[in-house]
Amino acid sequence: MKTCKLLGACLAMALASTPLAGCGSNSSSAESTGKPDSILVWDYGEPASGQDRGWHRAAEIFTKKTGIKVKFEVKSFTQIAQNGSQFLNSDQAPDVMKSNRGNGSAGVLSTQNLLTDLKPYVKKYGWDKKVTGQAAAVGKYDKRGVMDGDTWYGIPSYAEMQRVYYNKDIFAKYGLQIPKTYSEFTQVLQAFKDKGVTPITADAGEFGVLWLWWQLAMTKADRKFVDDWQLYKHKVNWRSEPLTFATDTIKDWFDKGYISRNATGMKAEDTTTAFIRGEYPIYQTGSWNQNRFMEQIKNFDWTAAIFPDSKMVEGCAGNLLVIPEKAKHKDLAAQYIDIVLSDEIQNFIGNHGGVPVHADSSAITDTKSRELVQEYNDAAKANRMSYYPDYPAPNLTDAMPAAFQELVNGTKKPSEILQTLHKDYDDGVSQMGLDDN
């Protein structure tokens, strides 16, 4: 999801990619002897994002220090999500891979013994002093594959969250103010609609509507609700206010025309470029788009903030850098990850629209970037991060967007959508061998 974008560790699709670039000659999990020409990193993400640029800057430093190149091979999110187990259980596994975090992705891979236990490297480099709190929680899993466990399987080097991005010029054109409360937000939606303007762009073809739904739920949720959903601490109450309010509101907003009616045929790139072109006043999306907006929006002014009156905030530490169990150059992979966590790269990520997991705030000179980092840091310190809704099980990555397609199309009522989600959630958790809800 993300991009964000999100989850799954299914084995439903066959590997369909270009031939993989090899590195080293030893297909065992042990460190290859000798000095390789390169190490291989598999990535999916936003090339313009601060974190991706930071990883490439880290590669330059790594090469200067070691004389070894870093080869990046781009995979789609779907390839990694749906074929991760096949990728990693082969002699073509990379040295470093970007993996989605959460029980249904990195958690599943850890239970299949496909990821390296990073404890020796965490101790050697002191990564646990840099990656702490909720950021550490998404990198550590227990023997069931549930996050916030006791074993490090991945290292987040950045964080992300959903924010509402506002086109200030369109607001000014119609004499409207950027909303600070939920009540003001809904008043603005109606005011735009009264003026013949569709206020919100959101895609139902991927995860946009789903993320908006979860953030609406987070205006009513608390930490207990999130822990029950994500960590199975108690059964999920499917009639609770967060779920009923969010589902009813999505339906209501579509019926009133607050959200573009072509959402069912749109994907994330469609909505992102539409906002960049200045076609909509409001767009909720992940902070991974921040640098893209900073660089590509030339014709209007914009601002962003967490969804008004949210008790919890949709987001968490970013996708993980993992070392596959069958990686050929584990020590070099760890050295590269350590450079990504260096002050230089963390500050670089922060100054390019990303959210570093640790950085010197005074070194982030760009105003919009500094505001984003501070907003995330404040929410994280207050224990308000809610992760993403499809984390509990691999099947939810596909099942949840499909359910909201039916809501948007009007083929199911909100109560029926919650029944569908309940079944999908229970089925997925049960398939993972965990207590269902």
Automatic annotation (TrEMBL):
Kindly indicate whether the keyword Signal belongs to this entry: yes
Q: Whose protein is this, by species? A: Bifidobacterium kimbladii
Pfam families per UniProt: SBP_bac_1
Query: Does Signal count among this protein's keywords?
Result: yes
Q: What is this protein called?
A: ABC transporter substrate-binding protein
Q: Which UniProt keywords apply?
A: Signal
Q: Where is the signal peptide?
A: 1-21
Q: Which InterPro entries match?
A: Bact_solute-bd_prot1, SBP
Give the source's domain of life in one word. Bacteria
